Amino acid sequence: MLAAHRCGGRTSFVSFARAWDRFAGARRARRATARELRILEGRLEATILAEDPLDLAAAIAEHDALRAKAPPHRDRCAWLRPGRRSADDHRALRRLEAELEALRDREPIV
Hints:
Blueprint: H1 2-6, H2 13-24, H3 34-50, H4 56-69, H5 87-105
């Protein structure tokens, strides 16, 4: 898919999924079997080996250089982890608790 994209072709993961389902004979969505995953892995490795030799050391060095130039990464999932709360989080939580308490104290509307 990447090679097609580089040459101007456009494809999506949906088209790959449909082609794979036809190859595997799947009639509905399901997890790939261990055999199917081995086949896919083998095909991907064969495709990579058929291309020009890769200089992985150069690719890793280029990646490291790009990461060094990039701004610091902010952990976008920190709010999901317990125990990592900021002062803003505590203020927001207290405000929500106060609003919930106020709603509990109200008379039910009939």
